[in-house]
């Protein structure tokens, strides 16, 4: 009787992991997927807070990929554990606040842990969609063995898209999978993956050029560093990292920052924070809801309201009426003159 | 068969899916779980999660502010 071998695959929702799993399925391997949610993952639904994305099809790409492959998917919340990866990356950061190599080591290590904690499920090895040369930090010929070693996966880590460029792994040496039926992709070109996707009949997959993590984004990283600098600590909570994805961020003073909704969708999202944070809204004209992050003193209310009024339809009015709501207090009503473009210092924009 | 409720309001996907997945692990086959959410993304994500993991969506209610999805736990 032939023993059926089983693998756990890291599923990001992108094309590479989709293909890696299908290659293994073609070799008779039973696969389940695992997806780690760090809080920084780029997902359609966080973008969908904004109005203009409402017509986009809403889907989680990891779930979509799992459904295309006909595999189970385990989504794991690693938000707390991931803090150490972000704050203390052994291998440092990429161009922005992205600790890509440490992140990959962490995720493969979590897959190793998953195998150990679910022995009854009989997983034999781990699959990733890594390709040599695909990413400047985490997917290089030099870093591939580092991921395998430091994650603890060692020789049970299989990268079907570039396996022929790497030393043989245990599943190959044991004959569970055929090395000749894997690939030797390398470099940043996406053409081989796209050709393979066409061969397998995959269409409508997540954009190959799209990154999967907000930490690779300069604007997001700048906001994160600003938050840490302003607080004097690099601690963060889930709400902090979500709010960095929302609104226009303006810091008129070091003690507080204004998060100004850019449309009705973001205003609705910020509504959920009214009980926790000071909020400001122009009520005499249409305007965005604004949340104050940090410690705002009453003496700064007029400045803050003036900035907020700049982003509403009353920006050219002589005076606008503003409501300031401090949680647990009565609404404060102010009539103020909106700041001019020149008065909103360019350096305030985070 | 028992009925359960899960509050996933103000969470953005995939957190409602993760919370649903983790709650379902504690339940028995045939149990019914009502998941209350505010992110409209759950209308796509929770059914997709249910399909690939062998659970059944019995229906959903959407009152404009909150969405309740009814899941029957599969094997």
Remind me, CATH topology of the largest domain in chain A?
Rossmann fold
Largest sheet of chain A: 6 strands, antiparallel
Helical percentage of chain B: 25-40%
Counting DSSP H or I runs of 4 or more residues, the number of helices of chain B is: 2
Q: If helices are DSSP runs of H or I spanning 4 or more residues, what is the number of helices of chain A?
A: 12
Low-confidence stretches of chain B: none
Q: Strand arrangement, largest sheet of chain B?
A: 1-2-4-3
Structural class of chain B: alpha+beta
Give the number of domains of chain B: 1
Largest sheet of chain B: 4 strands, mixed
CATH class of the largest domain in chain A: Alpha Beta
Major protein interface: A-B, 28 and 20 residues
Mean pLDDT of chain A: 92
Quickly give the CATH architecture of chain B.
2-Layer Sandwich
CATH fold-level assignment of chain B: Translation Initiation Factor IF3
| Secondary-structure-derived class of chain A | alpha/beta
Low-confidence stretches of chain A: none
Mind explaining what this structure looks like?
The complex is a heterodimer of chains A (350) and B (75). With 350 residues, chain A is α/β, with parallel strands linked by helices. Chain A folds into two domains: 209 residues, Rossmann fold (3-Layer(aba) Sandwich), CATH 3.40.50; 103 residues, no CATH class. Chain A is built from twelve helices and eleven strands. Chain B is α+β, with helices and mostly antiparallel strands. Chain B contains two helices and four strands; from the N terminus they run βαβαββ. The radius of gyration of chain B is 11 Å and the shape is globular. The mean pLDDT of chain B is 94. Chain B has one domain: TusA-like domain (Translation Initiation Factor IF3, 2-Layer Sandwich). A four-stranded mixed sheet of chain B has the order 1-2-4-3, covered by helices on one side. In chain B, 29% of the residues lie in helices and 33% in strands. Classes of the chains: A alpha/beta (350), B alpha+beta (75). The interface between A and B is medium-sized, with 28 and 20 residues.
């Amino acid at each position: 009787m032939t023993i059926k071998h089983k693998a756990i695959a890291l599923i990001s929702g992108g094309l590479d992991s989709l293909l890696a799993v299908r290659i293994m399925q073609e070799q008779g391997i039973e696969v389940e997927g695992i997806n780690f949610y760090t809080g920084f993952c780029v997902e359609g639904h966080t973008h969908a807070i904004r109005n203009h994305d409402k017509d986009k099809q809403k889907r989680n790409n990891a779930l979509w990929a799992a459904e295309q492959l006909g595999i189970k998917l385990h989504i794991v919340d690693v938000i707390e554990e991931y803090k150490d990866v972000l704050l203390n990356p052994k291998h440092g950061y990429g161009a922005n606040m992205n600790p890509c190599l440490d992140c990959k080591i962490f995720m493969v290590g979590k897959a190793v842990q998953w195998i150990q904690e679910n022995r009854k499920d009989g997983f034999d090895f781990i699959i990733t969609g890594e390709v040599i040369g695909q990413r400047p930090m985490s997917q290089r010929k030099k870093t591939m063995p580092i991921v395998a070693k430091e994650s603890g996966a060692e020789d049970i880590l299989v990268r079907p898209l570039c396996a022929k460029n790497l030393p043989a792994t245990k599943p190959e040496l044991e004959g569970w999978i055929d090395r000749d039926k894997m690939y030797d992709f390398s470099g940043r070109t996406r053409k081989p993956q796209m050709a393979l996707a066409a061969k397998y009949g995959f269409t409508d997959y997540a954009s190959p050029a799209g990154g999967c993590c907000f930490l690779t984004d300069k604007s997001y990283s700048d906001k994160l560093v600003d938050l840490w600098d302003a607080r004097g600590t690099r601690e963060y909570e889930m709400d902090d990292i979500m709010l960095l994805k929302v609104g226009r961020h303006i810091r008129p003073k070091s003690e507080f920052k204004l998060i100004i909704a850019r449309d009705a969708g973001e205003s609705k999202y910020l509504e959920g924070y009214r009980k926790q944070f000071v909020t400001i809204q122009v009520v005499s004209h249409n305007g965005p809801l604004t949340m104050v992050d940090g410690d705002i003193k009453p003496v700064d209310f007029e400045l803050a309201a003036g900035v907020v009024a700049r982003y509403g339809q009353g920006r050219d009015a002589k005076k606008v009426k503003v409501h300031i709501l401090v949680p647990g207090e009565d609404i404060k009503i102010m009539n103020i003159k909106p700041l001019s473009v020149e008065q909103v210092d360019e350096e305030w924009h985070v | 068969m028992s009925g359960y409720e899960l509050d996933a309001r103000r969470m953005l996907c995939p957190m409602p899916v993760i919370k649903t997945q983790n709650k379902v692990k504690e339940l028995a086959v045939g149990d019914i779980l009502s998941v209350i959410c505010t992110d409209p993304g759950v209308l796509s994500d929770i059914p997709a999660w249910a399909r690939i993991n062998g659970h059944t969506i019995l229906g959903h209610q959407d009152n404009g502010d909150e969405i309740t999805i009814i899941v029957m736990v599969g094997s």
